[in-house]
Amino acid sequence: MISLHTHGTGTAAEAPAGDGHRTTEHLSQECTTPDDVPQPRRSSVERVHRLLSSFDYEHTHLRLSDLSRRAGLPLSTTHRMVTELLELEILERDENDLLCIGVAVWKFGLLTPKTYGIHRVALPFMQDLYATTRLPVHLGIPQGNQATIVESLRPRGGGRERPRIGQRDPLHMTAVGTALLAFCDNNFQEHYLTNLRNRRGTDTPEVIRRELAQTRACGYAVNKRKTAPRTAIGAPVLDRSGRPLGAVSLVVPAGTATPPYDHLVRKTARAVQRMAWEQGMG
Questions:
Q1: pLDDT tens for each residue of 128-155
Q2: Among the record's GO biological process terms, what is one (predicted)?
Q3: Cα distances (angstroms) measured from residue 196 to each of 82, 140, 204, 237
Q4: Distance CA 100, CA 21 (A)
């Protein structure tokens, strides 16, 4: 994915430098701890998922022992599976001989229907919005009760800026999510709000219901829950039946008046929507 910011690249503890490849013999040298603790039986697919899920923005490179610990799998099982995953290029070794996600996973990710189409269509318009405002621009899609960020453009040097690509948040917590939730069907909305019945403050069903009504009336959402003191403005990209395909958001500095940014965000989302319809999406 194209992005104007630099992701964090936290690494694990230093490992001896190598040529970027490990043999089974080298891997075996890390498997010296006996598996004393009984482990529940898990399917192979679940174990692979646990291994891949052990990597994140703070842990992009791991030693075998760290991967075993984070995945909650025996060291011998991790060793055996990592050997095969390396052969399949699902995992790779970096220049320091640490494990990292392989190119094969990236290739699979490009085929994800929920992200590929909307991302491809939205990116040029997001780049125009970023060039106009020089402010962070995000694209999110609905995923159950959460919004997942699939693209993020922001100034370089933003450090640990949020959200990051792949980040998921409850729908009501972000401008992207609020814009999505406002245009979901009524049954989904009511079920979502029911799950908030024990919340307090700004997260109660009554507060969220008013925000959703305001979003439908204006065509955009305003949300500070994850960005305060800055303000996030999000506008939906809808299919032909009025259901959300995704949403575009812009994060403006604290104290900045919403106009004209609300107009720019809505204009961008509608341009993405028109292009999506022309290309048969939704």
A1: 999 999 999 999 999 999 999 999 998 8
A2: negative regulation of DNA-templated transcription
A3: 41, 22, 6, 25
A4: 12
* Residue 156 near residue 5 (C-beta atoms within 8 A): yes
Cα–Cα distance measured from residue 169 to residue 220, given in angstroms and rounded to the nearest whole number: 18
Structure tokens at 141: 């899609």
Q: Could you give the 3-state DSSP secondary structure of residue 148?
A: strand
Calculate the alpha carbon distances from 115 to 8, 67, 93, 269 in Å: 22, 28, 28, 16
- Enter the tokens of residue 245: 């395909």
Is the CATH number 2.130.10.10 carried by domain 113-278?
A: no
Q: What is the pTM of this model?
A: 0.73
Q: How far is CA 177 from CA 122, 135, 141, 198, 222, in A?
A: 17, 19, 8, 20, 10
Residue-wise burial string across 173-184, b where 16 or more C-beta atoms lie within 10 A, e elsewhere: bbbbbbbbbbbb
Which CATH number is associated with domain 24-108?
A: 1.10.10.10
